[in-house]
Amino acid sequence: MKLGKKRIHIAPVGFEVDRVVIPAVDNKADKVYLLVHNNKKEDKAVPYAERITKQLTANKIESEKIQVNWRDVESITKSARRLILEQFGNDIFVNVASGSKNHAIALDRAIMTLEDQSGIVEFYAESEKYEGFKPGKQQLSTGVKDTKTIPKRQMILPTGKLRDALSILYKNNLKQEGTCTFPCKEDHLLQAEESKGDGHMWGSMRKKDLANECVKQDLIPSTGNILTALDKNIIQKLESDWDYIDINKLGQSHHVSLTTAGMAFVYEMSP
């Protein structure tokens, strides 16, 4: 480890204590970031977070709580990705064993979206023994039998001009009155009849307006037919390769909107 680097652990807090504390102590962690639920009133893991903090302090390891909404994979992914980027340059150890399935999925996804994964270790702490669980009093398991490193993988994601075009639609959604914030759990049956997706038409823009904005941002050529250029350079790739946009005819105009997957991508990748 290079001089000046710190050993940083990131761990979600569920109903486990040992699976957070033991790997941190064994690894001589300098600091542990604990992902806790952002609604303390409904968070049944609060007693476990307190026990973890006390044990880390006793071992002279600094800790800090990061609030996330454990119900939303996208929210956790966004927060975890931002935290990892903030700590980039340190040795970062991401624990996917100590929280819920949402935590594990989101942490794994946050790492896979990174172009540079150097210095990042994703691991699973295997329990030594499972006890009879008593909420708030007894943890799900005790001890750590083994710590397994998870092989690195990387998502192939839109970059450059494609990502900029998605951002135009994302920002347009933020400007529109009455549109949903993201993540949205509402059931939009009426919109679902008009669109090919789940009823959301995130950031919907007339195709011509999107083309003009892309010209302004130098994403497509300003000469020739800009609608054809938009189709060839932006729409075909985002619609076919990633399913991140929908095309819907509303009245006499074709509108381009983000699918929920496209909205999730821009949301998770934005600062």
Strands, helices and their partners?
Blueprint lengths: L6 E6 L5 H9 L4 E7 L8 H13 L3 E7 L4 H14 L4 E5 L5 H12 L7 E11 L10 E9 L10 H16 L13 H6 L7 E5 H10 L9 H15 L4 E6 L2 E6 L1 H10 L2
Parallel strand pairs: 1-2, 1-4, 2-3, 4-5
Antiparallel strand pairs: 5-6, 7-9, 8-9
Helix pairs in contact: 3-4, 3-9, 5-9, 7-8
Describe the structure.
The chain has 271 residues and is an alpha/beta fold. The protein has 2 domains: 7-149, Rossmann fold; 160-269, Arc Repressor Mutant, subunit A (Orthogonal Bundle), CATH 1.10.10. The chain has helices at residues 18-26, 46-58, 73-86, 101-112, 160-175, 189-194, 207-216, 226-240, 260-269, and strands spanning 7-12, 31-37, 62-68, 91-95, 120-130, 141-149, 202-206, 245-250, 253-258. The chain has a 6-stranded mixed β-sheet with strand order 3-2-1-4-5-6, sandwiched between helices.
